[in-house]
Design brief:
single chain, 637 residues, alpha+beta, Immunoglobulin-like, C8orf32 fold, Jelly Rolls, 3 domains, eight-stranded mixed β-sheet, 39 strands, signal, DUF3857
Length: 637
């Protein structure tokens, strides 16, 4: 009871304090609900973006945030990025303690100004101003305000007022002002109230507002967080960047702008053209020719990111890359396109939003939603995609970084949206063959060969490319699931095909493959692929079930049992099937040899909320089947 009283008193005190500092009046129950399960509450937030022309705009931002615990502390630090196309006009900030007393007011000397060069860049003109008002007694409140002038009008605000889990919003608004007669494009999602449109003497004014938003949490295997919260994307029709005028009215228009940036930048020295033609003279197919050029590019260049002004969108000339041997994703893709053109192969520069697990772009809203460039090579039977920033990637492989999403092909006729390769279960495989010789103590010597393909080989590819032998051995110890073991020997064999593969060979000394009890030996034949995870099941599932990867695992395990034992119990064959996948396992015994075969295939897709119970049941069935044991009994002499 004492604990209850303390918590109750703290909550009451917090509620009174929140009401005292509330920027507008809300019911006490409403504030109490906002505090439940939250690390921070956005008390009031205002974003105002004023467009003056296609080359000029001003962003004004103001927020008041109450931080409830240490997990909300990051809200007490403000980051304001800028570059040569934007200027920070003003930053101010103040913090208050739980009693409303001012703790600190920002001074200019408190604001850090640092380079914002990313880890993949050598040089950028990006910088960021950082101001922190972090405090260690909760709750406390921070207020921030800043203004930025912009000359790059390609980007209008993308508004996610509830940008993370365990964040409440008491009130937040977005206002975009565009000159009279100018059309604002926007995309809304999960808004309780649609846009309000008004005007003044110079501008059309678009206003969005949300209030009283409780914390939102993703469910296991749920949609991306951005699908669950309010969102507004805004964008121009006409824009201009560093003297290059363009339009985003359609994907075709945006592609025309990008094509204009690339025009005339594909010229190569005559000696390089001659070298490429000689290199590919004996190619027996277009695909072989592409591979030869791609291999040449990988051996000659390295990835270096330099992002300055319009160079954030415009590639270096192909001749520059040919001479220097380096470039970023744009430059290397443009260079490879120029080389393929020199040997008579047509290809297309393409923009894409790359990253494992990154949501696809909003195809219904033409705009700059991309962070990467690749090359698309159309073929009579299939399309090859080339990742030109890697010295080791297999030609034609998208993988988890750029696969199964939309890319914008940049053609002379404009932009064209196309889908990159989506890999199926039969392409994302883990096929394992394991032979084990047991000793009388239940230990064993195992020889394991596992072939990984598609997305399942990516982690091993990273090990091969990035780790030294001793680091590889350590990685294997940390990422191999088996009874206690020592690695006697290991090796990797890699094939760089359209669907690449890595074969991993292990020689293991295992200390406990079987359990002895009296005269009985208990063997769990699934030694390396036991399923262990079952998501929590709420009383009512609210969101769709989303599986983002299809794959197939097949294990064949042969175990040689010491002489003098005979089988006492043999599990029966099991098969399970659901909308999410299929599972089958069987065990056979022939003399002293146990043969276990397990096959698990999972589908990719989006499923109705009510199917979640089936997924939980499916996984529980697999866990039970994976734990089955074969029982041997020692023969009486």
């Amino acid at each position: 009871m004492l604990r209850f009283n303390r918590n109750y008193n703290w909550l009451c005190g917090l509620l009174c304090w929140l009401l005292l500092l509330a920027p507008q009046v809300f019911a006490a129950g409403s504030l109490e609900e906002l505090a439940k399960g939250a690390n921070a509450i956005i008390r009031a937030e205002e974003t105002v973006f004023t467009v003056n022309s296609t080359t000029s705009g001003v962003l004004r931002f103001k927020s008041t945030i109450t931080i409830l615990n240490k997990y909300g502390d990051h809200h007490a630090t403000l980051y304001v990025p800028y570059n040569k196309m934007s200027k920070v006009n003003a930053i101010s900030g103040t913090s208050y303690d739980r009693f409303g007393k001012r703790i600190k007011k920002l001074k200019n000397s408190d604001i850090k100004d640092v380079s914002a060069i990313s880890s993949i860049s050598v040089y950028e003109d990006s910088r960021v101003k950082i101001a922190s008002l972090e405090y260690n007694v909760y709750p406390y409140t921070v207020e921030f305000e800043y203004e930025v002038s912009k000359s790059n009008m390609m980007f209008y605000p993308r508004w996610y007022p509830q940008g993370e889990e365990k964040l409440s919003v008491e009130r937040a608004s977005l206002q975009v002002q565009v000159p009279l007669g100018t059309k604002l494009r926007y995309l809304e999602n999960n808004l309780p109230k649609k846009v309000e449109v008004g005007s003044n003497t110079t501008h059309e004014i678009y206003t969005w507002e949300v209030s009283n938003l409780k914390p939102v949490s993703r469910e296991p295997y749920g949609p991306s967080f951005s699908e669950l919260v309010p969102m507004v994307l805004t964008g121009p029709n006409e824009f201009e960047v560093d003297g290059y005028k363009g339009s985003m009215a359609t994907w075709k228009d945006f592609g025309l702008w990008a094509h204009k940036l690339n025009q005339g930048r594909d010229e190569l020295p005559a000696e390089t053209v001659a070298k490429l033609k000689n290199l590919t003279a004996n190619a027996k197919s277009t695909e072989e020719k592409v591979r030869m050029v791609y291999d040449y590019m990988q051996g000659k260049t390295r990835y270096v990111s330099i992002q300055l002004g319009i160079g954030s969108w415009q590639p270096f000339e192909a001749s520059f890359v040919d001479d220097k041997g380096y470039g970023d994703c744009k430059a290397l893709s443009n260079y490879t396109q120029a080389m393929l053109k020199a040997v008579g192969v047509e290809s297309y520069y393409a923009l894409i939003n790359a990253g494992e697990g990154t949501p696809d772009i909003k195809i219904e809203f033409p705009s700059s939603q991309f962070n990467h460039a690749v090359l698309c090579v159309p073929m009579a039977q299939d399309t090859m995609w080339l990742e030109c920033t890697s010295q080791t990637a297999a030609a034609g492989y998208n993988g988890s970084f750029t696969g199964d999403r939309h890319a914008l092909l940049i053609t002379p006729e404009g932009g064209k949206l196309v889908k990159t390769t989506a890999y199926t279960a039969t392409e994302n495989q883990q096929i394992r063959s394991m032979n084990v010789r047991l000793d009388e103590a239940g230990g064993g010597i195992a020889s394991v060969s596992t072939r990984y393909t598609g997305t399942q080989q990516e982690s091993r590819d990273g090990v091969i490319q990035n780790l030294k032998p001793e680091e590889q051995r350590k990685w294997l110890y940390e990422n191999t699931t088996a009874p206690p073991f020592e690695i006697s020997k290991y090796s990797f064999t890699q094939k760089k095909e359209r669907v690449p593969s890595v074969t991993e060979n292990l020689e293991l000394s295992m200390r406990q493959c079987a359990t002895l009890s009296g005269k009985r030996m208990f063997i769990s034949p699934n030694l390396m692929s036991k399923w262990t995870y079952v998501p929590d099941q709420k009383e009512k599932r609210l969101t769709d079930v989303v599986r983002i990867q299809a794959y197939m695992d097949v294990d064949t395990v042969e175990i040689e049992v010491p002489a003098g034992y005979s089988v006492e119990y043999l599990p029966g064959e099991v098969k399970y099937k659901s909308v999410f996948g299929e599972y089958a396992a069987s065990v056979k015994v022939d003399g002293q040899r146990v043969t276990y075969v397990r096959r698990m295939q999972m589908h990719k897709g989006r499923f109705a909320p009510e199917t979640f119970a089936q997924l939980v049941e499916f996984y529980n069935s697999i866990i039970k089947a994976d734990a089955e044991q074969v029982v041997f009994v020692k023969n009486v002499q």
